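Build the 3D complex.
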Amino acid sequence: MASTATHDSAVLHQHDDHGHGHHKETFITKYIFSQDHKMIAKQFLITGIVMAVVAMILSILFRLQLAWPDQSFPLLETFLGEKWAEGGRIKPDFYLAIVTIHGTMMVFFVLTAGLSGTFSNLLIPLQLGARDMASPFLNMISYWLFFLSCVIMMCSFFVESGPASSGWTVYPPLSALPKAISGSGTGMTLWLISMVLFVASALIGALNYISTILNMRTKGMDMWKMPLTIWAFFLTAIVGVLSFPVLVSAVVLLIFDRSFGTSFYLSDIVVAGQVLPNQGGSPVLWQHLFWFLGHPEVYIVIMPALGITSEVIATNSRKPIFGYHAMVYSLIGITVLSFIVWGHHMFITGMNPFLGGVFMITTLIIAVPSAVKTFNYLATIWRGNLRFTPAMLFAIGLVSFFISGGLTGLFLGNAALDINLHDTYFVVAHFHLVMGCAAIFGMLCGVYHWYPRLFGRMMDERLGYLHFWVTFVCAYLVFFPMHFMGIDGVPRRYYAFTEFAFMQEWLTVNVFITWSAIISALAQVAFLWNFFYSIFYGKKAPQNPWESTTLEWTAPVEHLHGNWPGEIPSVHRWPYDYSKPGHHTDFIPQTTPFSETMSSNLLHDFEGSAEAEHIQQEWNKEHASERNTPEQV
Amino acid sequence: MENLQVEDRLNLKAKKFLMWLFIIASFMMFAALTSGFIVYTEGNIERGIKVLLPKAFMYSSVIIILSSLTAHMAYLSAKGLQFAKQKLYIGITILLGIAFFYSQFQAWQALYNSGAYFVNYNASQSFIYVFSGAHLIHVLVGLFFLLYALIGVFRNVPQVRNVFRMEIASIFWHFLDILWIYLYVFLLLNQ
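Done.
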């Protein structure tokens, strides 16, 4: 009994300790090892932006090479040194490295961590009405693992043999034999370490998101009252939890092959005239394991962007999102289907044609939920009271890219057409539009929309419009011509096209693409300036700048630990009550109870509660004369 | 009521849920490894385990099942406020965990002696080491969870926390138990 007593008093003591009054914060606990979800969101965003700038510079470098393969740029030698750009021309080894690292950084660091990491961290607690994540400590760990993985990836530029060079999919045997090409050495090892840390970070993040969404919603916030952003983050996190561990398994086997001499992926290899001892392995095994992650990964990239877009389009069209339930079910459909389509990356690996047919069918079925989403976006915009904020423009841009990039997915998902199109610029055009541009636009849309929430200030709108139009037009100018190159059979990842007669005619197109890329890169300077300048000198943000209904706009502009000073607001209605007939404003926040909006309530709002319906009907009868809207019965 | 409020503020329920999600993630990792094994082994008749699995794997299975029982006993004693018993059972579980380690190493030794090396042209045999090795790393993590719970009892942490730590440790430990049985049965079926 004695020990029971001690335990109980300890419980009480504990209770006192954990009040929500905030303890003293030092610079380190506030800005560096912060456990506050809003600060962690900013950390993810800024790290993501830095990585995006690095990846963009890399892309300009290889675009220069593709457009002017024979020309010398002495400036390059100044910056990159003799080793990588001797005589002002990018060396083939370095070209392969920058293509690889561009892909890796964009897919993982920018569009996974930068996008999900930022907006899941910011919006999940704020839109659901939680004080913070399920485990703020793990949340901090998640960011720092991500940071470490970025640092290691950057370090690989400074090792003797250069960064990993076997493409972002790191297929063996190139990735499994340290002596295969110069990038397969230390650079590849660093790539693998970086990726394992990244997976750990992404997993910890995803676990936190799911647990927070399922356990820490405020009063009244049932699953069907969650904004679509939260649905998207939730399903994205589920995809992450199920697919990232598979990459770890694949990488572990690869590490054994590289460093211990096992033969999981290696067989029948001759390097420089020497026969290697490894026998019996299967390089296709890597592709199976990699694409089991790799395909869901593209949905990890696009789904948060789709969620953000739903929210921004509904807010700025001043209309309820069209087909809320259909939106959720199509996200669920995409989630489920994403796990059974990985084979479409492997049609030409000697796959059994029957199996290829199965993968083809599952792949083409994904067009259905995608089309449902696209239709719903357009139907939401249709006859809306549109407000063309920069965020809205980027959201519409996403829909545009999602359509034009998605259509070519139907070609590539076809096992027979893929024989021609595989590994050509057609693929490059397809995925850059549908998951590259679309996801980046989703991310930028989120930045413009939630910037007041992140930094308490507004971004400059005119710079935002400039940024949008130049980026939007140039992105099409860059990627659209690539379709034609691909249909003509121009292969991706080649260093130069000068050796093949049929490709030489595409050189002029490459020059055009490179100029477009350079202009769109310059447009990003407008964004960077706008972003960093506004953090310090932007206009102070009002409480609810976009007149939005969701919970995050009820929290004070000044950030405080725990998000709301008093009690957490409770939720009474779904998040899309825009322009509801009969109400005096064109938006009703989720926190407004139905009792305060008697003039606009509809019977189906009450979800079958007979009592509430009765009260409403009584009210309607009493006020029938005041409501001079005879057409409403 | 008071206890419930404390639990709410510490989000212990949400944190416990994290453990279940972690289990799902780590199960996916093993699902990937075992399906990798199937894809690899089915590709060619010359592949396959082709040796008898060492007896030590059977002993390991018995040990880990026993340890799962003691972990559960520790959990029950924690709930029943019998802290002396809780310490004892956690201690036994940790010892059994270490014994499991020893037994797995014995199994590797036996595999090595029978010619099924890790570095092998027949990667089906290498897979045995990968399965059991990856599992052992998880066991190591499980031991840390148990130790964390044990330190909790010694330090007299509040009962909600004590039960929480104990729950986390035992959920994970049962998972390790089930996981090993899955791997062992998988290997036996492919022998």
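DSSP finds six helices and no strands in chain B.
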